[in-house]
C-alpha cells in the first residue's frame, strides 16, 4: 500500500473513530470532531544512504504528535519507507547522520537512544542509552574519526556513537552552574575538539578535547553575562566559528579569538552522489540537481504531510473561531455556519507556538513563543508591510500566556521568562499609537500567569508563579496575586489568598465582579478585587490535581445561559458556579484527555483542540 492510500485509509479511520467517540460521550452532550485545521506539507530531509545495489535513499523525520517516524525516500522511484519511532518517546529533535560505515545513525527519544538503520539488512538496531536523563537535543556533528557527537538536556551531557563500530559513550556534562541545562542548538567538531554552546540561563561555550578528556569554558566573562547560548558553525577551512550578540569569533581549545576574519555560515547541500537533494515540497516532489550541469529531475513521493497540534483556541471574530498551532505556529479559523476551516499559515513572529489570540477593533492580537512576541494582524486586510504589525519584544521573556482587556482600554498580558531565568513581565499594548510597554520583574523572580480587569478601581488583577522559564530554579517560597494600578503603572497591593501556593494560574472575572483563580495544585478561590478580600477557598473536586488542567486553565469570562466559568481537567469539563462557588463536573469524553487550548462561546459551546483535531460540544443544555 502506498503512503497516499495509507493516508486515505487513516483519514477514514479517523472519521469512524470520531463517530465512535462521540457515541461514548456523556448522554446529555454530543461531542463532535470537526476535523484537522492545519497540515504541514513537505518534509525536511537530513541524510542520504546508499544501498548495496547503488540506489540512494534520503531520510527525514515525521513529527506528528505521538507518531514520530523515520521516513526514507527512494530517490529513483519515490517509494517511501516508514519506521515507527514512537517507542523511544516524543521529545525534541531526532538528529541523524550517515555514518562512516554507510549506515544511518539517529539519536532519539527520552531517555535518548542511539539507533542504527542498517542499509544492508534494512532494519533498525538499538545501540543503547549513553546517558540518562537525556532528551531535547539539537543538531549533532560527525567527526573525521567517525564519531557522531550530540549534546542533551537537562544535564548537558555530551554523548557520542562511533559510527564505525557502534560503540556509544558519554563524555560527561558541559557545565559547572546547575542552572545551565542545554547544549543547544548544535555542536561542532574540529581537530578532535567538540565545541558545545551551553545555556540558556546565560551563555557559555565549552571545548571538550576528546583525546585527553579536558574540557573548559572558553567565552570571556562579558559574553557569559548574556542570556541564551552562542551560535557556532564550521567554516570552509574546517575551523569552528561563532557569534554572541554582535561579537564574532574563532573557537580554539582554550579561548576564542575575535581579531580574525569570520566567514558566514554556509549550509552544505544534501547530496546523493553527484546530485543535490531538495526537501520534499508541498506537492510531495523531491528535486534532484546535477552539481555540474545544473540539470534537474523530480521524483514524486506519496508523503501526505503532517497534522499540526492545536495549541490554543483563542477568540471569535466576524462569526469565526480563531486558534493557533505549535511546531510550527500557524493560525487557523473555523466558520461554524459553513464548516469552513482555513489554515492561514505562519502569521505570528514566534515560530513555535501561538499562546493566545485576542480580537480587538483593529484586528487580532497574537501572542507567541519564543521570545514572547506580540503581533497585531488584520485578517480583513492584505498581508504586507505593517500587516501584521510587529511590536517590540520584551527583554529575556519567552511565553506570553493570557490576554485581557484592561479598564483603560489597553490590552495586557503576563509572561514567563526565557529558559533558565526567573522574573517574568507585564506587557501593555496601547492601540492609540501601537506601542507596547514592558514592566519586567514587577514581582521579583516570579512569572506572571493570568490577568483580569477590575474596572471599579482602574486596576488589573494578576497572578504569579515562583516557576520561571524552562529549566529555571525557583528562588521564592510562594506566589502572589497582585493588583496593578493602570494609571500609576505600579503594583498597588500583593495578596496570598491560599498560603503556601507556588503557582496562581489562570483567572476569570464573573458577572458578580468576583475573580476566580486556580491555586495549584489543589485549590481554587474567589476574590473580591475591590475589598481585596478572599471570599471563598475550596478544594478541586474529586481529588483533582490542578496540574492536570488543560491550557489555558479557565475560560477568561463567564459563558452560557448560567454564567458559568469552565475548565478542562484530565478527561472532563468542570464548571464553577459563581452563585454558590461550587465546582462540579459537567461532562466527560475520551478526547478531553488530549485537550490543549479551549474556548467557550457566549452561548455555551465549548471548542477545543485534541492533538491535531478541533472538537466541539454544546454545554448550554439547548
Quickly describe the structure.
By secondary structure, this protein is mostly beta strands. It has two helices and 55 strands.
Protein traits:
622 residues; Methylamine Dehydrogenase, Chain H; five-stranded antiparallel β-sheet; 2 helices
**Major beta sheet, specifics?**
5 strands, antiparallel
Compute the average pLDDT.
93
User: Per CATH, what is the topology of the domain at 394-539?
Assistant: Methylamine Dehydrogenase, Chain H
Rough outline: globular
Strand count? 55
Helix content: under 10%
Task: Report the uncertain regions.
Answer: 1-27
Strand content: over 45%
CATH architect. name of the domain at 394-539: 7 Propeller
CATH class of the domain at 394-539: Mainly Beta
Structural class label: mainly beta
How far apart the termini lie comes to 46 Å
C-alpha-based Rg, rounded? 26 Å
Output the CATH homologous superfamily of the domain at 394-539.
Answer: YVTN repeat-like/Quinoprotein amine dehydrogenase
Number of helices: 2
Tell me what the structure shows.
This protein is mostly beta strands and 622 residues long. The chain has a domain at 394-539: 7 Propeller (Methylamine Dehydrogenase, Chain H), CATH 2.130.10.10. Helices cover 4% and strands 47% of the residues. It contains two helices and 55 strands. Strands 15, 16, 17, 18 and 19 form a five-stranded antiparallel beta sheet that branches. Strands 37, 38, 39, 40 and 41 form a five-stranded antiparallel beta sheet that branches. Strands 1-55-54-53 form a four-stranded antiparallel beta sheet. The model is unreliable at 1-27 (pLDDT under 50).
Amino acid at each position: 500500500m502506498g503512503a497516499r492510500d495509507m493516508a486515505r485509509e487513516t483519514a477514514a479511520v479517523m472519521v469512524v473513530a470520531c463517530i465512535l467517540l462521540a457515541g461514548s460521550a456523556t448522554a446529555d452532550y454530543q461531542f463532535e470532531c470537526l476535523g484537522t485545521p492545519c497540515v504541514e506539507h513537505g518534509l525536511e530531509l537530513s541524510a542520504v544512504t546508499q544501498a548495496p545495489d547503488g540506489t540512494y535513499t534520503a531520510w527525514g523525520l515525521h513529527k506528528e504528535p505521538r507518531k514520530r517516524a523515520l521516513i526514507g525516500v527512494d530517490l529513483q522511484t519515490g517509494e517511501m519507507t516508514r519506521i515507527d519511532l514512537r517507542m523511544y518517546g516524543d521529545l525534541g529533535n531526532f538528529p541523524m547522520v550517515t555514518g562512516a560505515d554507510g549506515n544511518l545513525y539517529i539519536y532519539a527519544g527520552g531517555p535518548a537512544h542511539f539507533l542504527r538503520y542498517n542499509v544492508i539488512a534494512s532494519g533498525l538496531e538499538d545501540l543503547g542509552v549513553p546517558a540518562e536523563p537525556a532528551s531535547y537535543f539539537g543538531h549533532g556533528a560527525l567527526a573525521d574519526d567517525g564519531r557522531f557527537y550530540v549534546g542533551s538536556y537537562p544535564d548537558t551531557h555530551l554523548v557520542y556513537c562511533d559510527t564505525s563500530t557502534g560503540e556509544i559513550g558519554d563524555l560527561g556534562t558541559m557545565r559547572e552552574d546547575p542552572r545551565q541545562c542545554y547544549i543547544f542548538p548544535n555542536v561542532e567538531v574540529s581537530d578532535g575538539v567538540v565545541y558545545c554552546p551551553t545555556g540558556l540561563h546565560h551563555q557559555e561555550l565549552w571545548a571538550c578535547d576528546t583525546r585527553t578528556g579536558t574540557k573548559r569554558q572558553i567565552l570571556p566573562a562579558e559574553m557569559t553575562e548574556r542570556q541564551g547560548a552562542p551560535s557556532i558553525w564550521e567554516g570552509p577551512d574546517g575551523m569552528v566559528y561563532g557569534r554572541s550578540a554582535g561579537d564574532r569569533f574563532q573557537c580554539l581549545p582554550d579561548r576564542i579569538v575575535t581579531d580574525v576574519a569570520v566567514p558566514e555560515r554556509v549550509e552544505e547541500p544534501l547530496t546523493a552522489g553527484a546530485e543535490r537533494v531538495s526537501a520534499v515540497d508541498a506537492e510531495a516532489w523531491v528535486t534532484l540537481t546535477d552539481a555540474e550541469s545544473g540539470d534537474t529531475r523530480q521524483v514524486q513521493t506519496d508523503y501526505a504531510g503532517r497534522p499540526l497540534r492545536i495549541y490554543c483556541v483563542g477568540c471569535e471574530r466576524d462569526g469565526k473561531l480563531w486558534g493557533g498551532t505549535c511546531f510550527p505556529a500557524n493560525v487557523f479559523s473555523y466558520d461554524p455556519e459553513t464548516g469552513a476551516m482555513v489554515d492561514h499559515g505562519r502569521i505570528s513572529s514566534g515560530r513555535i507556538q501561538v499562546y493566545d489570540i485576542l480580537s480587538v477593533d483593529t484586528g487580532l492580537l497574537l501572542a507567541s513563543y519564543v521570545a514572547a512576541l506580540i503581533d497585531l494582524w488584520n485578517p480583513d486586510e492584505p498581508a504586507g508591510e505593517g500587516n501584521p504589525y510587529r511590536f517590540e519584544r520584551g527583554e529575556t521573556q519567552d511565553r506570553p500566556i493570557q490576554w485581557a482587556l484592561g479598564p483603560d482600554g489597553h490590552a495586557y498580558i503576563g509572561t514567563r521568562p526565557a529558559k533558565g531565568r526567573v522574573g517574568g513581565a507585564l506587557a501593555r499594548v496601547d492601540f492609540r499609537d501601537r506601542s507596547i510597554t514592558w514592566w519586567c520583574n514587577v514581582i521579583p523572580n516570579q512569572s506572571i500567569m493570568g490577568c483580569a480587569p477590575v474596572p471599579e478601581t482602574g486596576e488589573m488583577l494578576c497572578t504569579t508563579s515562583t516557576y520561571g522559564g524552562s529549566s529555571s530554579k525557583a528562588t521564592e517560597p510562594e506566589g502572589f496575586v497582585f493588583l496593578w494600578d493602570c494609571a500609576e503603572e505600579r503594583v498597588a497591593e500583593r495578596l496570598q489568598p491560599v498560603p503556601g501556593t507556588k503557582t496562581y494560574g489562570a483567572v476569570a472575572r464573573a458577572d458578580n465582579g468576583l475573580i476566580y483563580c486556580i491555586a495549584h495544585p489543589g485549590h481554587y478561590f474567589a476574590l473580591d478585587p475591590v475589598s481585596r478580600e478572599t471570599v471563598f477557598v475550596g478544594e478541586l473536586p474529586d481529588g483533582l490535581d490542578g496540574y492536570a488542567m488543560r491550557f489555558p486553565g479557565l475560560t477568561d469570562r463567564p459563558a452560557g445561559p448560567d454564567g458559568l466559568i469552565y475548565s478542562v481537567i484530565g478527561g472532563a469539563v468542570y464548571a464553577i458556579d459563581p452563585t454558590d462557588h461550587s465546582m462540579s463536573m459537567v461532562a466527560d469524553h475520551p478526547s478531553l484527555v488530549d485537550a490543549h487550548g479551549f474556548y467557550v462561546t457566549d452561548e455555551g459551546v465549548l471548542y477545543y483542540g485534541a492533538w491535531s483535531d478541533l472538537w466541539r460540544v454544546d454545554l448550554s443544555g439547548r
